[in-house]
C-alpha cells in the first residue's frame, strides 16, 4: 500500500512509492482518497484528487464514480465543488455561537449537520485589537476551522472571518415558566440551546405553548435571549408534537384562502368524455381508519379461449385531474406540497378536504370520476395487454383489509357475504395469477416489519404495534404495481413525456462494501456488471431464521439506492421493472397527478391533460417532489422519535431490549424494537477498553480484547437521559461485548488499519 498522501502546498503531493505504482495502473484505495480529502480541504475537488494521484483517462471516470458512490453512502458531502468527509467540518464553515465555556471562551456549532451524531463544538478565537464588532452569543459567523488535538475539549477552533447580520430566522421551542417566574424556551432541536425570554417579549405565550421565537444578541455571559414571535398552540393539546415537525421542516399545512375558495367552487364531474362503469362492482380496500379512498379494484376470469386460466384485472383511480388543472391555485399549492404527510396524530394533505375527502374519494354508492386501467394476464402471470379508460364509477363496497381477509378466510360479515363469490374470490384468484408473475420477476424481498403508533385521545402514545401483513395488503399492492407499470408503458409507447419512479441499482462502491461485509460472515456475493435483486434474495434466503438474519437484512437495505422521480428512465431495481411510474395515488402524490395528465393528453381522453408548459418543467418538478418526499419522511421520523421519547420520559433507569441500528466512531445508535425509536450510546461509556471503528464489519471492537458490538446485535440497555421535545434519548450499554464474527485475520486487519491511521502524522506534525 502506498504511504500517506500529504497535504504539501507545492510540488507533487504523491510519495515516491505512489509515483512508482502509477506506472502499473495504480488506483488509490478508498482510505487513501478519504485521508487525502481530510488533509487537503482546500484542494478536495475531483480535479485536485485526480491530479494528486496522477489519474488519467478511464481512471478519472473510475474516480468520478467512486466519489459519487461515497456521497451516496453518506461518507462524503459536496459543497462549492469541494468534497469533505461527513462528520468533519469544512475548512471554512458557517457557525452559530451558542455559549461560553468556564473560561469565557465563545463556543459554536456548525449551522449545517455534519454527521449523524452530536454536532462538533468549535471554540471561537477573537483577534484582539481587530476592527469591527466582536462576535457574541447568538451571532452567526463565517470562520476558518482547525481540528484540535485535545480529546477532552472542543473538536475544533475557529477564527472568525465575518459576522453575519443579526439573525432574524425564527426557531421553535416550548415556552416554560420557571418557579422564580422567569421565562425560558425549551429547545425542540438537539442542536438548539435554551433561550431566555424577557417579560416584554412574552407576546402572550403561556407555560407549555409551542412558540416561534427570534434569537437575539446575548450579553457576554449567560444564555442567549429571544422574543416570542408567534404562539403555535399548547403542547397539552392533541397534535402538538407533529406541529413541531411541521414547522421545523417548513411543511405547508394551512391552505391559502384562494386555494380553499377554488376547491369550494369546483362542480362535480359529469359523464362528458367518460364511459359509464357505474354497474361494474369495483370495491375499495383500505386501512380501517382511512378517510379518503383513491383506488378501487375488480377482477374476472378471461373468457377468451386463447387465454385459458387467465384473468382480467381492473384498477380504477380517482380522477384528480378533472378538478385540479395546471396553473390554478389548487395546482400550485399541490406542487409546492408535493405529497401528503402522514403523522401518527394527523395528516397534512396535498389537496384540500373538499377534493381529497369528497369529490375525489371513491365513496361507496356514490358516482365518482376515475381513470381506469383494464389489464389481461395469462395463467402464468404475464400481462398480455391493457387499456386505459376515463370513466364514471360507483363503488360497490368500502372494505377494510382485515374485513376482506376475514371473508376469504371463511368469516364473512353482512357486507362481505353478498359479494364473496362474485367480487372477493375472483380478486383473490386474480392475485394468485399476479403472484406467479411476481415470483418469476423476483423483486427484492427484504423482511423489515413496519410499526404503527396508536395514540390515546389526548395525542400521547398508547402502544406501538406491528400490523399483521395480510394477503389483502399484498393483493392491493400487486394490483397497484401492475397499474403503475401499465401507465409507464402506455406513456412511453405514445412518446408522451412523464415522470418515472426510478430506483437505481446499488453503486459499485456499495456493492463492494456489502461484499466485504458478507465475507466476514462467510457469505459471498458474485461480482458482475449487471446486479439483480435475485442475487440479494439468495443471500437473504441463506440467513433466514439465523441469528444474523436481521443484520444481513439491514445491511442489504443500506446498500440500496434511494428511489426518486425523474423524466429520464433507468428502471426500478428493487421491483425489478424496466419502466415504472406512480399512477395510483393522485390524491396524495403530485407525481401521480402528472402521470394522469399525461395519459389524458396521450390518449385524447378529454380536458385536463398535460400541457407543453408542464412538459418543459418536468425535470425541475421531479427534483422538487423528490425533495418534498424526503422532507416528509424526515418529519414523520422526527415525530415518531418525539412521541416515543415523551412516552419513555418517565422510565429513566429502566432496562430495555434493543438492537444496534447504527455504528459510528463516536458510538452506537440503538433501536428499541417494541417502539421503533432510536437512542445513542457514546463510545466513551462502553467500558475501559479502547474501541476501534471497523467500517467494513459495521462494528466497534476493543483494542485489547478484540470483542465488541456490531450492527443489528441484540443488546440490553438502560435509559439514562431523555429530551422529549428534541426526540433524543441516551442509553447505557448493559450487554458485555462479544467476540465478533469473522476470522482473526479480519480482526487484525481492521485493528492494523485503525492503528496505522492513528499513528500517521498529520499536518504540522500532529498525531491522528
Structure commentary:
The chain is α+β, with helices and mostly antiparallel strands and 768 residues long. 29% of the residues lie in helices and 25% in strands. It is built from 18 helices and 34 strands. A five-stranded mixed β-barrel has the order 3-4-5-7-6. It has a five-stranded mixed barrel with strand order 8-9-10-12-11. Strand 22 (452-455) and strand 23 (461-465) form a beta hairpin. Helix 5 packs antiparallel against helix 17 and helix 11 crosses helix 15 (590-603). The longest helix is centred in the C-terminal third of the chain and has 31 residues, at 618-648. The protein is globular, with a radius of gyration of 29 Å. The model is unreliable at 1-23, 743-747 and 753-768 (pLDDT under 50). It is found in: Cytoplasm. 3'-5' exoribonuclease that releases 5'-nucleoside monophosphates and is involved in maturation of structured RNAs. This is Ribonuclease R. Residues 653-734 form the S1 motif domain. Its EC number is 3.1.13.1.
- Secondary structural class: alpha+beta
What Rg is obtained from the alpha carbons, in whole angstroms? 29 Å
Mean pLDDT, all residues: 85
Shape: globular
Spatial ordering of strands, largest sheet: 3-4-5-7-6
What's the helical proportion of residues? 25-40%
Distance between the termini: 19 Å
Most strands sheet:
5 strands, mixed, barrel
DSSP strand tally: 34
Measured by DSSP, the beta-strand proportion falls in: 25-35%
* Uncertain stretches: 1-23, 743-747, 753-768
| Total number of helices | 18
Domain S1 motif: 653-734
Family: Belongs to the RNR ribonuclease family. RNase R subfamily.
Subcellular location: Cytoplasm
Function: 3'-5' exoribonuclease that releases 5'-nucleoside monophosphates and is involved in maturation of structured RNAs.
Amino acid at each position: 500500500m502506498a504511504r500517506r498522501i500529504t497535504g504539501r502546498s507545492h510540488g507533487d503531493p504523491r510519495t515516491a512509492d505512489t509515483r512508482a505504482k502509477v506506472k502499473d495502473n495504480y488506483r488509490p484505495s478508498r482510505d487513501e482518497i478519504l485521508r487525502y480529502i481530510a488533509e487537503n480541504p482546500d484542494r478536495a475537488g475531483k480535479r485536485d484528487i485526480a491530479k494528486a494521484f496522477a489519474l488519467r483517462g478511464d481512471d478519472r471516470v473510475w474516480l468520478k464514480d467512486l466519489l459519487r458512490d461515497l456521497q451516496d453512502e453518506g461518507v462524503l458531502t459536496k459543497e462549492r465543488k469541494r468534497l469533505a468527509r461527513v462528520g468533519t467540518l469544512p475548512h471554512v464553515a458557517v457557525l452559530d455561537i451558542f455559549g461560553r465555556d468556564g473560561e469565557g471562551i465563545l463556543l459554536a456549532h456548525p449551522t449545517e449537520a455534519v454527521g449523524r451524531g452530536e454536532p462538533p463544538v468549535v471554540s471561537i478565537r477573537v483577534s484582539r485589537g481587530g476592527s469591527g464588532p466582536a462576535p457574541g452569543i447568538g451571532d452567526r459567523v463565517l470562520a476558518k476551522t482547525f481540528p484540535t488535538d485535545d480529546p477532552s475539549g472542543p473538536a475544533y477552533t475557529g477564527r472568525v472571518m465575518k459576522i453575519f447580520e443579526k439573525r432574524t430566522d425564527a426557531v421553535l421551542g416550548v415556552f416554560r415558566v420557571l418557579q422564580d417566574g422567569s421565562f425560558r424556551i425549551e429547545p425542540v432541536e438537539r442542536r438548539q440551546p435554551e433561550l431566555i425570554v424577557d417579560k416584554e417579549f412574552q407576546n402572550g405565550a403561556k407555560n407549555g405553548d409551542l412558540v416561534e421565537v427570534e434569537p437575539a444578541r446575548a450579553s457576554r455571559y449567560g444564555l442567549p435571549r429571544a422574543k416570542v414571535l408567534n404562539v403555535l398552540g399548547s403542547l397539552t393539546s392533541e397534535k402538538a408534537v407533529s406541529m413541531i415537525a411541521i414547522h421545523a421542516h417548513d411543511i405547508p399545512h394551512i391552505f391559502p384562502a384562494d386555494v380553499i375558495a377554488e376547491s369550494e367552487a369546483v362542480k362535480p364531474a359529469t359523464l362528458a368524455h367518460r364511459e359509464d362503469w357505474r354497474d361494474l362492482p369495483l370495491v375499495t380496500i383500505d386501512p380501517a381508519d382511512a378517510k379518503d379512498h383513491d383506488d378501487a379494484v375488480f377482477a374476472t376470469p378471461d373468457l377468451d379461449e386463447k387465454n385459458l386460466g387467465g384473468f382480467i384485472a381492473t384498477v380504477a383511480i380517482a380522477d384528480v385531474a378533472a378538478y385540479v388543472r395546471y396553473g390554478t391555485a389548487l395546482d400550485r399549492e399541490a406542487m409546492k406540497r408535493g405529497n401528503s404527510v402522514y403523522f401518527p396524530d394527523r395528516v397534512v394533505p396535498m389537496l384540500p378536504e373538499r377534493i381529497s375527502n369528497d369529490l375525489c374519494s371513491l365513496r361507496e354508492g356514490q358516482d365518482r370520476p376515475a381513470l381506469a386501467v383494464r389489464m389481461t394476464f395469462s395463467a402464468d402471470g404475464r400481462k398480455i395487454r391493457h387499456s386505459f379508460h376515463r370513466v364514471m364509477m360507483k363503488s360497490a363496497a368500502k372494505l377494510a383489509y382485515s374485513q376482506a381477509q376475514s371473508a376469504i378466510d371463511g368469516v364473512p360479515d353482512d357486507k362481505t357475504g353478498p359479494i364473496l363469490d362474485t367480487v372477493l374470490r375472483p380478486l383473490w384468484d386474480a392475485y394468485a395469477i399476479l403472484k406467479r408473475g411476481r415470483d418469476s420477476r423476483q423483486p427484492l424481498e427484504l423482511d423489515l416489519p413496519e410499526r404503527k403508533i396508536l395514540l390515546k385521545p389526548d395525542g400521547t402514545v398508547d402502544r406501538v404495534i406491528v400490523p399483521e401483513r395480510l394477503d389483502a395488503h399484498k393483493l392491493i399492492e400487486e394490483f397497484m404495481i401492475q397499474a403503475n407499470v401499465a401507465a409507464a408503458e402506455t406513456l412511453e409507447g405514445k412518446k408522451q413525456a412523464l415522470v418515472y419512479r426510478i430506483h437505481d441499482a446499488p453503486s459499485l462502491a456499495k456493492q463492494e462494501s456489502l461484499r466485504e461485509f458478507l465475507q466476514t460472515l462467510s457469505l459471498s456475493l458474485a461480482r458482475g456488471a449487471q446486479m439483480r435483486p435475485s442475487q440479494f434474495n439468495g443471500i437473504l434466503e441463506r440467513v433466514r431464521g439465523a441469528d444474523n438474519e436481521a443484520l444481513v437484512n439491514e445491511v442489504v437495505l443500506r446498500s440500496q439506492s434511494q428511489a426518486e422521480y425523474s423524466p429520464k428512465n433507468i428502471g426500478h431495481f428493487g421491483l425489478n421493472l424496466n419502466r415504472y411510474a406512480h399512477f395510483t395515488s393522485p390524491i396524495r402524490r403530485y407525481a401521480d397527478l402528472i402521470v394522469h395528465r399525461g395519459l389524458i393528453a396521450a390518449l385524447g381522453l378529454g380536458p385536463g391533460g398535460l400541457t407543453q408548459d408542464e412538459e418543459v418543467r418536468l425535470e425541475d418538478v421531479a427534483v422538487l417532489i423528490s425533495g418534498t418526499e424526503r422532507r416528509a419522511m424526515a418529519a414523520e421520523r422526527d415525530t415518531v422519535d418525539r412521541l416515543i421519547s415523551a412516552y419513555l420520559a418517565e422510565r429513566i433507569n429502566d432496562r430495555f431490549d434493543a438492537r444496534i441500528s447504527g455504528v459510528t466512531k463516536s458510538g452506537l445508535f440503538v433501536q428499541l424494537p417494541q417502539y421503533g425509536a432510536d437512542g445513542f450510546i457514546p463510545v466513551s461509556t462502553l467500558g475501559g477498553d479502547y474501541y476501534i471503528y471497523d467500517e467494513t464489519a459495521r462494528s466497534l471492537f476493543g483494542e485489547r480484547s478484540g470483542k465488541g458490538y456490531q450492527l443489528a446485535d441484540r443488546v440490553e440497555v438502560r435509559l439514562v437521559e431523555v429530551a422529549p421535545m428534541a426526540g433524543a434519548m441516551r442509553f447505557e450499554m448493559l450487554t458485555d461485548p462479544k467476540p465478533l464474527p469473522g476470522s482473526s485475520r479480519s480482526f487484525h486487519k481492521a485493528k492494523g488499519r485503525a492503528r496505522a491511521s492513528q499513528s500517521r502524522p498529520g499536518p504540522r506534525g500532529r498525531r491522528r
